[in-house]
Design goal:
By secondary structure, this protein is of the alpha/beta class. The protein has 10 helices and 7 strands. It has 3 domains: 86 residues; 100 residues, ATPase, nucleotide binding domain (Nucleotidyltransferase, domain 5, 2-Layer Sandwich), CATH 3.30.420.40; 64 residues, no CATH class. The model has no long low-confidence stretch (mean pLDDT 86).
Length: 273
Amino acid sequence: MRVGFGGALAAVSEAGRLAMQDAKLALGDVVAICAGLAGAAQPESKEKMRALLAEEYPGKLLRVCTDQDLTLEAVGGGPAVVLHAGTGSFAVGRSKDGPILRVGGHGPLLGDEGSAYDIGRRALIAALRVADRGGEDSPLAKQALRELRIGDWEDLHLRVYSAPDEVFPRIFPIVASAADAGDSEAQAILERAAADLAALVADLMERLDLQRQKFVLVKSGGTVGRSECFDRLLDDRLKLVAPQAEFSELVMSNAEAAARLALRMMLAADEGR
């Protein structure tokens, strides 16, 4: 949705080429392919990407799923919830016998609350409000402008409206570092983000009827483990909404999860012959 189908196909194909190169495999050695892609939750987008990949890799068994599906696969079996907080945000989970469900993951215009994008956007909005009132830029705002190599707020407006994906997520590390150093403004922004992310988990738990079940809860994404303050705030919020959850980590990478799904698809095809 954000980079276009051509850009997505090029990125996936290049990743596949590098993976085969590292594994010392040729394309002819490959039997099955699983591609987990952001945006593939929409049926039309999923089918279009599947058709493009089928042209790129003719004769291969092919599965297109979402990046959320891969993340949940990477947890292992049993009831589980994965909270992802990177550039975007979502929660995906399953109960013991129920279907796989998700909340969030709708992109920055319709969601992504608590993500690096959202945190950066909130930080710059707060800084702009101070500037609009004629106040002096906060240390957080000054550091953000330096990091983005932007001279003033007018230049910032131009950058934001031309390339928001290149602006907002880059502010997160600045906010995280400031919060760890005791900056109250940064801590308040991260507190709000932690509350928003915990709300995603609470919503998903209700839909999966997990409030009275034990389940594994995994945090993933680029905002996790980057700030002692944010990790503490998020853990505190999650323990409030999910006191019965067992905190854990992914048992494999999303890339390995995709390979395992492709392998299962190949084995199932062999059994069906």
